[in-house]
Amino acid sequence: MSDLAEVQPGTRPWEPARGASLAVVLHRYDRPLIGTFDQHGTHYLFRCLAGEVERANFWSYVRVDPDQEAKLADVSAELFDEAIDEASQGPGVLAIAVDDRIVASALIDDLDIDLSPVISQLASRGLAILREEEAALQEVAAAV
Amino acid sequence: MVPDALSNSETLTQYGHSDSRPPFRNRPREWTEDEISLIRGPLGKEEAARAVRDRRWEVSAKDQVRQTTAGRLRMAGFSVTSTGTPRNPGHVSVRIDLEKVWDDDACARFDECFGN
After folding, report:
1. CB-based contact B86 A50, cutoff 8 Å
2. Could you list the residue range(s) of the whole structural domain that residue B94 is in?
3. Are the beta carbons of A80 and B15 separated by less than 8 Å?
4. pLDDT (tens digit, 9 = 90+) per residue, B9-66?
5. Does A55 contact B20 at a Cβ distance shorter than 8 Å?
6. Distance (Å, rounded) from C-alpha B83 to C-alpha B101?
7. CATH code of the domain covering residue B35
8. Which residues of B touch A100 (CB under 8 A)?
9. Which ipTM value was assigned to this complex?
10. What is the pTM of this model?
11. Domain for residue B4, yes or no?
């Protein structure tokens, strides 16, 4: 059992690695925004931090135990955000996604800190990766 | 969570953002979605943003809402069901019949449901 979710580029933010399977959706709007997924028998909480209706978005991942997961599924809407904040502490993973696929991720010692510097770095990395992909596509197109 | 029946007269709100293209979705994203989300009730943009966004989100003039009814969507060929979640008990799913395709015509019919 690992404290940190495995997050792989190219996968969906709510199933962020091959073999991960969506377990519970706690919040959705067009796409799942908050919920849990199973990875090697361990459940992790995924949460969209920003970009809920946009093409690009930021996500956090943290391990949840069965008691926490049951509590999140039962908590009232009024207390939900507080419960999610409480569950989203400690070591985790932060990721950026574009068009529902993970582009880049970073391990975080504690998700309950100011994440803006890490988000900024991830955004830069994500942009660099997308530019590399664009250049590769143009290269292939030119060769055809 | 047991879905509540939605009457045809019930007002539904779609939340959007002016920086998105289009500001209001009129078709599910290809490959990853099979429905469009709405919210029960005639919500203002602040209420709708709170129902969708992380609570740290600061509502601005770019947040937008538009409204229709369950009946108008059903008349246009869509299925409309209450699919509340713990975070948003008012969540509503709009889908198209399995044998139909959410094509450009369906997009136009969906958008027309929000007109006067």
Report:
1. no
2. 11-112
3. no
4. 999 999 999 988 889 999 998 777 889 999 999 999 999 999 999 988 889 999 999 9
5. yes
6. 22
7. 3.20.170
8. 29, 31-32
9. 0.91
10. 0.92
11. no
